[in-house]
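Human
Can I borrow your eye for a moment on a structure tokenisation matter? Give me a protein, with the fold worked out from its sequence. Write it directly below this note and I will take it from there.

Assistant
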Amino acid sequence: MKRLLFCLVLAALPSLGGERQASIAPIALFTQFQEEPSAAIREALQSELETIMNPVGLHFDWRSLNDGDNTATELVVVTFKGRCDVRGMQPLTVMPGALGWTHVSDGLVLPFSEVDCSAVRDFLQRQLLVRSPAEREELYGRALGRVLAHELYHVLASTASHGACGVAKSGYTVSDLLAPDFMFQAAELRTLLQSKVHQVLELAAAIATTAP
């Protein structure tokens, strides 16, 4: 097994393309946190993921990995490693390396991703320290949502490839993670729309709608 490393490289900000799709069945997102985030960080994380995936109609049913209920049309398991908070930050610039990764076995992208909360925190801490405590939590949670969206792109599109710009590009700058808006490019939106996962979720929604 190897990992798709989400490395830090410079790239340009994208423009958004694509259109919103009809409602489809949600994806069960099973999560476990090495350190639980605050309610504000969790809310910002979930909201940002929904915003990024909304143009292709993808939505998520957030569940704890400890719940034991793994019944779902499609599911992904995500582990959040390290410190998922904004306490005790330092005015330092740290280049932490990988912010997240998705597991691959024999060329097959598996539905198991990881987000390194500590790495994201170290990468952004100098810029976050100049913001108010409330802003820090919101911006940090939003950044985690962007890293998660990147990893879910690999899983849902079943691809190890990256885009040239936007959420699917091979790495982010501090500006990417803190920008007011950051979305997929049109090409990657089309890839998600044409994916087998999207087709299965559409079928599941149609069956649920017509069931007696």
